[in-house]
Amino acid sequence: MKVLKFAVIFLVICTLAARPAESEDKKEKVYELKEIVVTATEVPDYVQDVVSKDEVSRPAISGSVLDSLGSQAGVQLQRGSAAGTESSKLRIRGFGETRLRILKDGMSIQRDGSYGNGPVDWSMFSAEHVDHIEIHRGAGPAKFGNTFGGVVNIVTKKPSEQPQTRISGAYGTFNTWDTQISHTWKAGPAGWAISASHFETDGYLRNNFTDRDNFSANVFFEFPLEVEFSAGMSYSDSETGNPVYNRPDSPYYDSGEPDADERELGGPGISARLLQGVLAWGDESLAEDENISFNASLTKGFDSGYARLDFLLWNQDRKEVYYDAADSGKKIYERETEAEDNNWSLRGEAAFDLSRHRVEVGGETRHYGWGDQTVNYMDESYFNASVNFFAFIREGFKGEPECLTYHALYAQDTWKIHPRADLEFGLRQEWYEADSIDPEAFGYEWPAEETSVSENNLDPRFALTFRPWDTGAFTARAGIVHRYPSSPEYFWWYLNKGMNFFNEDFRPEEAKQYELTYQQSFSDVMMAEIRGYYYDVEDYISSTSVPKIGSVYYNISEVEIKGMEIELSANLSSDMRIWTNFTWQEGDKSGDPWDTDNNLTHELADLPETMFNMGADYVYGEKFSAHLSLNYTDSREHFKGAELVTLDSYTLVNCSASYRFWESKGNSWELLFAAENILDEDYEEEEGYPMAGTTVMGGLRAIF
């Protein structure tokens, strides 16, 4: 809360100091601002969909911008809770976040993911900090590496020609509060975009509360010779409750809370070492996270192009505290982790228009690993005898902060070979190094032999776009993509290598991807797009949890994923737009050393065969807007340990609206409202964790 209070005071001071006197000049500048906003939302040609600022800023019980992606074709959300982002995951075309590229302003923000943190920290994004979100499905141009499913680029706000401050507050189900404030202004050659937010909720599941503060700031400076420098930081500080096992077979069952499994929000898990296992910890058990990242960029414009250099540094510190299930005031375990320890990346790119060619070159380097884990407190009476063999339970881990490196160079040429045809060809060279791991990092004696992984690959990308008529276009795309092991994948494979568990070798994934797209517009009234795709993935990396061993990562010999996405939208009038999209997908596998009995009959787990979304957007001038959507997800088969279970299909109906009830001299007030799961559907996105029924939020937004 201290961070939020400081941010609010700072933003208010900036706003008051920045307010200019009313004049005719101001009216002219407001007109110029509208032009800048339009051009700011222009996106690269390869981007297929854009989630607008209005969609991102709709109130949501989760408090996450991730929810704004849920109606997009090919997108599947896997949330283990109605509120908070700790267990939320994004999938596109069946590929999870380790196989996507999640960017902020073009810079990859995938974290190391060690100690159970996951590859993306969605809590870092306040809706007021985001201008729009760009989505590209598939491997795409050569500038994108280490991705199969696609690219999600979160574009943050840029300075506005006139100072603008936005303040919003919303309250809803589960005692949820979401308060946000932002300020942007460009004064001469300098500008800034600053935002802060506070989100808190009791949550839907037992002991799944969230209390989070965010602060983000970016400053921009324009210099002569078309040079621009920008720098910024993002900070979040949160407390999230560890969901408690709450089923009738528990002696601590609370019938007033939803039946659900437990979830440890940190890693490595301790439940297998506790006398009562998952029943050992109870209410008030939590994880505290402090995330901070710093970014800087330098851009030089030219008559025919630009050159840009980006740098990103990120850290995460986590504290986990477990309390007794029978006595929430009695602490049984506490540890602290440097989950992300000065991980950094550097990226450079340049693009030039040369006659009928658009030439792009660039590269990146990424250095990452994990930090130390220290046990601050342990009540040994709650632990079984296995702790005598596992030093990490008593003492923690030694970190490996620079264990992995990734380097890449790419070159790409988009050639307008004909007024109706473009040819794109690119090459991407990648190098991946994973060093040997210090035996002290394992936390116990293990017959792990010293080893390392070194890979380099040259990946070609090809695309041809043909426009047989002015309103239609065909695009054929093909390419090879590699995906390299993350730190958790590499660590656990390394640890179990000495056991010869499953396969001794560990190889990066290689995917051959083919895609065909057809786009058709009908005047300004209707748009249609259909995409068919096929992936042939060798050495697909999968994992399971083995009792008394832990996580085990291994290669599946071959995985094939194919599918189709259809999108339609129509403007019924200047005020009303309707839209729909349909996804069909199928995954087959062979050579799975875990599913040797072929329980999944060669299919992939957690992959719905069909998904369907439809909705309507209504806008009446700048006074009123409303949004209604329906989202359908097919049933999925899922492994619960070694048991195969089926997650039922579900249909969600959501709506939101805003009404500007007062406006004067550039200042305005708006009413906000949102309702989710209006049909009160009983469903799960993650096995064992039911989602909430009907939820509502309402609030106010002021713009001045």
From TrEMBL:
Fetch the InterPro entries from UniProt.
Beta-barrel_TonB, Beta-barrel_TonB_sf, Plug_dom, Plug_dom_sf, TonB-dep_rcpt-like
Location in the cell reads: Cell outer membrane
Boundaries of every TonB-dependent receptor-like beta-barrel domain copy: 288-678
Region ranges (Disordered): 235-267
Q: Which residues form a coiled coil?
A: none
Membrane association type: Multi-pass membrane protein
Q: What is this protein called?
A: TonB-dependent receptor-like superfamily protein
- The source organism is Desulfonema magnum
